[in-house]
Amino acid sequence: MQSIYIPKERVDRIRKDKAIAERIEKQCKCKMKIVDDTIEISGDAFNEFSAKNVITAFGRGFDIDAACSLMSDDYYFATIDLGQAFGSDKRIQQIKARIIGIGGKTKKYIEGVSQAKLSIYGESISFIGTTSAINEAQTAVNTLIEGGTHRIAYLRMETAHRKNKEEARAAAFRAI
């Protein structure tokens, strides 16, 4: 059995919407139990591991559909913890604002080009996607965190995206 702590408001959402817990239990083939602000998972080791990833992603702000995509062998989860890198709440808010952009434009653009899902929640920025999609999105996000302009962040991400597409085409050609 594993215990996972996620923010109280996300636990409350699972409590209110029983369909979320049922979906996780069904897809991960395990049992969930909410104890205070902790979720306990029981099942075989692989299913517990899968459920832990899904619940952690849900706890980091992803909707249940995005979180459950982690059940696919091709999708992964990654997080950047801004709280560890920056002590100032003001600086963390500035960085989050830069990544979201006006009206969410920056976040949508990063998701559109990279095909990774982003969640900006609390002091973290989390990603769900293929390894190449996450790397592309992280390229843009890290550029913005380091103080680079949006233009530079987009150019770096687009360059990484083109490189990944070319490598995929080359690999497909070699397979023929």
- Overall CATH class of the largest domain: Alpha Beta
Q: What's the helix count?
A: 9
- What percent strand? 15-25%
CATH homologous superfamily annotation of the largest domain: K Homology domain, type 1
* Rounded radius of gyration (Å): 18 Å
As laid out across the biggest beta sheet, the strand order is 1-3-2
Give helix and strand order, one letter per element, not per position.
EHHEEHHEHHHEEHH
Shape: flat
Terminus-to-terminus distance: 46 Å
| Tally of structural domains | 2
Say how many strands there are. 6
- Mean pLDDT comes to 90
Which ranges are low-confidence, i.e. pLDDT below 50, for 5 or more consecutive residues?
none
Biggest sheet features? 3 strands, antiparallel
Portion of residues in helices? 55-70%
CATH topology of the largest domain: Ribosomal Protein S8, Chain: A, domain 1
In short:
The protein has nine helices and six strands, in the order βααββααβαααββαα. By secondary structure, the chain is α+β, with helices and mostly antiparallel strands.
